[in-house]
Design brief:
single chain; alpha/beta; 6-stranded mixed beta sheet; 19% strand
């Protein structure tokens, strides 16, 4: 197989390097050209480019234009909801598009680009798949702008690309002075809370919803973080767009609240969603609203890359901070202050990390992914994935619509925890979980193998290291720790699958968040007053089991809703964990105001005489789970949240004083 041949070649190459001096093979460029390193490799580019085409408007055309470079002959662009307005947003920022031809609305038009006879094409990492076609037209450079690099680093790269280094330095000096002005506008930025929310339907918001983009490289975010203003904690923690209901608006309250919207989008949709949020009684209760310190910000003036747009943001913020009243009750807000950012651009010249070094070793068609046991070169877009664990690897791939071709069985059968959600008829079984059948996996010709991790880096195969080595000889093996919060687990799988994922993670997260809010409401918004016990039975050991508050999906759901747990489950581990071999004599330790009983392995468990004596059972404050519950993925979280919600809503007059545990499980 190609992958095994590649692995052998890399091993042989590494051996040769270890016994012989490394000889540099520098690419030589023709006169008038120079070698330029970029996301896709190295390219000989013109020393003085005269006809440049960019493949992003706000994120490439705008920042290059602001440097004073005018030899741009074409660019892709976007339109507003009416199909008009090429380069519209940039025009609001002083950009004059005269002489720049349109070469595609997002997707580049190769024929149009060819007709412009460019001597340089500039794209982003998202153009990697068409890099060869672009390079056949003109020297092509891909700039990574949506990943980890700070925007300052990207601007240095763009300045180098078009020979405008001094302009970058001048703009950087203006930007740093603007940040200093912001910090001087208040006594202490870390004591001033600023909240940024978005409500536009074009961003995915439905009436009554707002969202946080979590884009650390966006213009508003970079300015606020650089100046060190305090924020509602979720706004610093989210890494991708996250939706919220108006019921949690108070958690995003602040001294200064800014609502970003898209003025040029569908005005009817925009107005409907605006009224649903701003018309809510909860909006009027916000501290910022009561003090008339909630403002609307048209994203046209702040959308795009580069320094100019950030200087615009700084000017807007300086006006909003004048005479800002920072008194008021923000007790409903979990406040956080961003980590300081580097002030000196020279600090960016740091030693390469292991991950960066690993990335440089990946061949064409592969990229670096940080597995629980180290960086792994994985396919850019996997085509055939085999999982060697069922509901801690395979189901996560399935839940994102990934191309899974093999999954292990469990005691000779496919786990009902998975078959209740997904059709596995066309997926091959590849041995038992922890005991993969190497021959079967080899025949499936996977290009990626996934397995479970535990506590950050531990993994387990029957056969140990030898099994892992055998699998690695077939395809790259990625191990992802699934014993973490679902947001972290599924974000890793989303990153691993990339374009191979066909299901939108954001939609799943939003659906679960909405259900969780309903569960909190069913607990009368006072879930912290309830003590819950969870009873399950181990059919192989004949004993009861105690699980930590986040060790199983139904426990994690109620933990997120704010309930307490009986002491024996806190003993199992606040961050997860497990206690087995709980004897029948200790059964009463699971008695809480609410009792959750798993009946998958023992349908008669609720009829146990000792359990029937529990006050919660006698008063009907029970939740019965008769479906499989394993698997850290949103389909499972959503299904179990619906069951829990239905049974909670069926209980009349929930009593939080049925039992006294002697201590809080918080």
């Amino acid at each position: 197989m190609k992958y095994r041949k590649l692995a052998i070649f890399i091993i042989l190459a590494s051996l040769l390097v270890s016994i012989a001096p490394l000889t540099a093979q520098e690419t030589e460029c023709e006169d008038g050209f120079r070698l330029f390193e970029h996301f896709a490799g190295e390219t000989c580019i013109p020393e003085n480019p005269q006809r440049v085409v960019t493949l992003q408007d706000q994120n490439l055309l705008l920042p290059i234009w602001e440097l004073g470079f005018r030899n741009i002959v074409g660019s892709t662009g976007r339109f507003d909801a009416n199909g008009e307005g090429f380069f519209r947003r940039m025009e609001t920022q002083g950009f004059d598009p005269e002489g720049v031809e349109f070469v595609g609305g997002g997707e580049p038009n190769f024929e149009a680009i060819l007709g412009l006879e460019p001597d340089l094409i500039v794209g982003t990492e998202f153009d990697e798949e068409i890099y060869d076609q672009l390079s056949a037209i003109a020297p092509t450079v891909l700039i990574e702008i949506f990943g980890e690099p700070r925007f300052e680093e990207v601007m240095v790269t763009l300045g180098d690309l078009v020979g405008m280094e001094e302009a970058v330095e001048q703009l950087e000096a203006e930007y740093l002075q603007g940040i200093a002005d912001l910090q001087a506008a208040v006594d202490d930025p870390s004591e001033v809370v600023i909240s940024i929310i978005e409500t536009s339907p074009s961003g995915g918001a439905e009436p009554g919803q707002f969202y946080i983009s979590g884009a650390a490289n966006s213009s508003v975010e970079t300015v606020l973080r650089a100046a060190g203003f305090a924020r509602p904690a979720p706004q610093l923690e989210v890494t991708e767009r996250t939706f919220y209901s108006v019921e949690v608006l108070q958690e995003h309250d602040a001294d200064l609240l800014i609502r970003v919207f898209f003025a040029q989008e569908d005005p009817d949709e925009e107005q409907a969603n605006t009224e649903a949020v701003l018309g809510s009684p909860l909006w009027g209760l916000l501290n910022a609203v009561e003090k008339d310190q909630a403002f609307d910000l048209d994203s046209d003036s702040t959308f795009g890359y580069g320094y100019t747009v950030r200087l615009t943001v700084i000017g807007i913020l300086l006006e909003l901070l004048e005479d800002l009243d920072t008194t008021g009750d923000l007790s409903t807000v979990d406040i956080a202050v961003p980590e300081p950012v580097m002030d000196d651009m020279d600090d960016m010249e740091m030693e390469a990390t292991e991950e960066e070094i690993s990335a440089t070793l990946c061949e064409d068609g592969f990229r670096s992914f940080e597995s629980a046991i180290g960086a792994v070169c994985v396919p850019n877009v996997a085509q055939r994935i085999v999982a060697t664990h069922d509901f801690n690897a395979g189901v996560q791939v399935l839940s994102l619509g990934g191309p899974l071709v093999g999954i292990p069985s469990r005691f000779g059968e496919l786990a009902p925890d998975i078959t209740q959600f997904f059709d596995l008829n066309d997926i091959q079984t590849v041995g038992q979980y922890y005991e993969p059948n190497i021959e079967t996996i080899l025949q499936l010709e996977p290009d990626l193998i996934v397995h479970e991790g535990f506590n950050g880096d531990q993994w387990f195969y029957q056969g140990g290291e030898a099994t892992l080595e055998a699998l690695n000889a077939i395809a790259p093996v990625v191990i992802i720790d699934t014993f973490r919060p679902i947001e972290e687990v599924m974000a890793d799988y989303q990153e691993l699958l990339g374009d191979a994922a066909t299901v939108q993670l954001e939609e799943q997260q939003a659906e679960f968040d909405a259900l969780l809010e309903e569960i909190e409401a069913a607990l009368d918004n006072s879930g912290e007053d309830f003590t819950v016990g969870y009873i399950s039975f181990n059919p192989t050991g004949g004993f009861y089991q105690a699980w930590g508050p986040s060790a199983l999906v139904p426990l994690d759901i109620l933990t997120r809703a704010g309930v307490n747990w009986v002491p024996i489950q806190m003993e199992a581990g606040e961050d997860g964990g497990y206690l087995g071999d709980i004897s029948i004599e200790a059964l009463d330790e699971f008695s809480g105001d609410i009792v959750m009983i798993e009946t998958v392995f023992d349908p008669e468990l609720p009829n146990d005489p000792l359990i029937r004596e529990f006050p919660a059972v006698q008063t009907g404050q029970t939740i019965l789970l008769d479906v499989p519950i394993a698997g850290t993925h949103y389909a499972n979280y959503i299904a179990l949240a619906e069951i829990i919600l239905e049974q909670l809503e069926a209980i009349e007059d929930l009593d939080a004083d049925l039992v006294f545990t002697g201590e809080s499980g918080e």
